[in-house]
């Protein structure tokens, strides 16, 4: 391995090909991803604080209908949303109240909140039927910084945010409250948004307001370390414009600044954590934003953004969470429009594959990850 002094540039030293165009619209490719990516990795399922004790909720991951439960004592469990009798859905579209038991709405089989079958109601099984063989099909649950994640794989992979498990330790993450939420359905493949969110070549053209807030973005890069001649003296991460401390319209914090942050975390203006397959946590000095993607179809993606605040910030007289969120919401909508434009264009019969530029190193890493996931699944199936 070559030694670099000054520090190594992250720029690619070649211009690799992208994933093939069909990766963004082909139904078979989408099905492979559902199996290889979405049913095998940890997938974000919402804030713990937004799932009240005594609630069950239907959610969908990788095309699978799932049931997320929080019992009266606060414990969280998750199952496939299918009854072991004849397969009825257990929980419909709306959040349902959860008592001691999960009761099937069809013939009233009942399960404990840990999934054990405890009653078959009016049915009279013979001796060959064993209750212990007919519990709900469990799904792995993980909590991290007040976020809930589910994994459908039999053996779950390690839970591994790109900056490590401790990247947000200085933020009081578990105590933060959802103050604003944006949900938008975009006419694009989920990977199109992922790619957009991890490069800044589009920033000068698509995000004038963002480039004003983060000046280095106006040069089409995410940080100074991507600029020619970077010698390590400028900060490696993005830096807000002089006088701005956070992503609000004025750049001023919207409430008390988190007390536990290091000088470097405050100076950076934001800490950006990526969780594969498709969640991004942006931690500012005064609030945190979580952005996540859920594929709804080959060319349809649900984008969710949640703005998380300390309770005391939300309780400030006249506090308007939507107004605070407006700056980043605008950037997200600019990104969404760009992604839909990207999707429409790559449908051309002449576009078979694109080329990545050296600044798109995060996209290459993502494409390699997608390829590895698909290959691993195929290897197992072979
Ligand atoms: S299908 Fe659930 S009790 Fe019959
Ligand atoms: Fe963008």
One letter per element, helices H and strands E, the order comes to EHEEEEEEEEEEEHHHHEEEEHHEH
Largest sheet: 7 strands, antiparallel
Q: How much of the polypeptide forms β-strand, as a percent range? A: 15-25%
Head-to-tail CA distance between termini? 35 Å
Please list the strands of the largest sheet in the order they lie side by side.
Answer: 2-11-10-5-4-3-6
Q: Could you name the CATH class of the largest domain?
A: Alpha Beta
| Rough outline | globular
- Whole-number count of domains: 2
- Specify the CATH architecture of the largest domain: Alpha-Beta Complex
* Helix content range: 10-25%
Provide the CATH topology of the largest domain.
Naphthalene 1,2-dioxygenase Alpha Subunit, Chain A, domain 1
Radius of gyration: 23 Å
Total number of β-strand segments?
Answer: 17
CATH superfamily of the largest domain: Naphthalene 1,2-dioxygenase Alpha Subunit, Chain A, domain 1
Tell me the structural class. Answer: alpha+beta
Supply the number of helical segments.
8
Oligomer: single chain
């Amino acid at each position: 391995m070559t030694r670099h002094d000054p520090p190594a540039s992250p720029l690619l030293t070649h211009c690799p090909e992208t994933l093939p165009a069909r990766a963004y619209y082909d139904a078979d490719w989408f099905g492979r991803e559902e199996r290889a990516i979405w049913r095998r990795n940890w997938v974000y399922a919402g804030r713990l604080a937004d799932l009240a004790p005594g609630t069950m909720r239907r959610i969908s991951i990788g095309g699978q209908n799932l049931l997320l439960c929080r019992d009266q004592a606060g414990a969280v469990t998750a199952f496939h949303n299918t009854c072991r009798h004849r397969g009825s859905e257990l929980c419909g579209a709306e959040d349902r109240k959860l008592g001691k038991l999960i009761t099937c709405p069809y013939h009233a089989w009942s399960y404990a909140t840990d999934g054990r079958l405890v009653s078959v109601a009016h049915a009279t099984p013979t001796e060959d039927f064993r209750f212990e063989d007919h519990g709900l099909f469990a799904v792995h649950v993980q909590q991290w910084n007040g976020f809930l994640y589910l994994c459908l794989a039999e053996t779950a992979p390690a839970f591994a945010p790109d900056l490590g498990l401790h990247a947000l330790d200085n933020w009081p993450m578990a105590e933060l409250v959802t103050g604003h939420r944006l949900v938008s359905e975009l006419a694009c493949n989920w990977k199109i948004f992922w790619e957009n969110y991890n490069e800044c070549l589009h920033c000068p053209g698509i995000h004038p307001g963002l480039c004003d807030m983060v000046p280095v973005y106006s040069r089409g890069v995410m940080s100074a370390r991507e600029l020619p001649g970077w010698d390590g003296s400028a900060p490696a991460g993005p830096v807000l414009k002089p006088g701005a401390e956070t992503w609000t319209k004025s750049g001023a914090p919207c409430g008390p600044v988190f007390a536990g942050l290091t000088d470097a975390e405050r100076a950076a203006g934001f800490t950006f954590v990526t969780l594969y397959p498709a969640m991004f946590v942006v931690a500012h000095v005064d609030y945190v934003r979580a952005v996540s993607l859920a594929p709804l179809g080959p060319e349809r993606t649900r984008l969710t953004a949640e703005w998380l605040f300390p309770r005391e910030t939300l309780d400030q007289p006249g506090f308007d969470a939507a107004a605070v969120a407006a700056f980043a919401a605008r950037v997200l909508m600019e990104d969404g429009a760009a992604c839909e434009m990207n999707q429409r264009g790559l449908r051309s019969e002449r576009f078979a594959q694109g080329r990545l530029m050296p600044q798109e190193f995060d996209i290459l890493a993502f494409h390699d990850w997608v390829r590895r996931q698909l290959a691993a699944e195929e290897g197992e199936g072979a």
